[in-house]
Specification:
With 241 residues, this protein is mainly alpha-helical. Helix content is 59%, strand content 2%. The protein has one domain. The chain has 12 helices and 2 strands; from the N terminus they run ααααααββαααααα. It has a two-stranded antiparallel sheet. The chain starts with 16 loop residues before the first helix and ends in a 13-residue tail after the last helix. The mean pLDDT is 95. This is Non-reducing end beta-L-arabinofuranosidase-like GH127 catalytic domain-containing protein. It holds the Pfam family Beta-AFase-like_GH127_cat.
Length: 241
């Protein structure tokens, strides 16, 4: 007897504490304003922001991570509930990101300044742990965007999200393909989220081997090398890298 995975949109919650929690989550997601989450993306693309930025982490040098989380959450909530408002939210965000991408013309979209990525791509790399060339966890932030685009495509069927994701991936390939493994290990000293996983996901929806090649840029030898020798050196390390 074979086991087959089921899709998120094949499940509906019945009245229960889980349904109650889902309802509260849905209400909170709809209370957020996409244009506020898009503030830094519009600004970095040279477009006038449509709304003020949110506070907290969104105003710091590490701002911009919230949009990717929001895209994933709305896409999954649409799959889980069928509520059209979540599909409308994700479609709107993708349209705005496509507009930013078209204006910039490089494939890059994001809240991190282009100058940071240019320095890194040229091999000028420095980090004190939670920053990379002065930007707070830029790969971690970029991972949330990659994942949000992937989730919107997979859970809502938005083909434009896939196109934006591929162009963003191609930008990353062209920007960083000249770096060697030693330089990548310096980069990976700064928190970088799930870039390895999401690039494998990009490969899974394109079949293009270069994205699988890119995923190995994020093989963090500080973790993997000891484990390959049956040495557990994970205790005390930051778990969310």
């Amino acid at each position: 007897m074979a086991l087959e995975p089921f899709q998120l949109n094949q499940i509906r919650l019945l009245p229960s504490p889980f349904k109650h929690a889902q309802t509260l989550d849905a209400e909170w997601l709809l209370s957020l304003e996409p244009d506020r989450l898009l503030h830094r993306f519009h600004k970095n693309a040279g477009l006038p922001p449509k709304a003020d930025n949110y506070g907290g982490w969104e105003t710091e040098r590490g701002g911009g991570r919230g949009l990717g989380h929001y895209m994933s959450a709305c896409a999954m909530m649409w799959a889980s509930t069928g509520e059209q408002k979540f599909k409308e939210r994700t479609d709107y965000v993708i349209d705005e990101l496509k507009r930013c991408q078209d204006v910039k013309g490089t494939g890059y979209i994001g809240s991190v300044e282009d100058s940071i990525w240019m320095q890194v791509g040229e091999g000028e790399i420095y980090s004190t742990g939670f920053d990379l060339n002065g930007a707070i966890v830029p790969w971690f932030i970029l991972h949330k965007l990659f994942a949000g685009l992937y989730d919107v495509h997979v859970y809502t069927g938005n083909e434009k999200a896939k196109s934006v994701l591929i162009h963003l991936s191609d930008w990353a390939y062209n920007q960083f393909k000249g770096l060697d493994d030693e330089q990548w290990q310096k980069i990976l000293a700064c928190e970088h989220g799930g870039m390895l996983e999401v690039l494998v996901n990009v490969y899974s929806i394109t079949g293009d081997m270069k994205y699988l090649e890119m995923s190995h840029w994020f093989d963090h030898q500080q973790f993997l090398s000891p484990l390959s020798r049956q040495i557990d050196s994970l205790a005390g390390l930051h778990a969310n890298t």
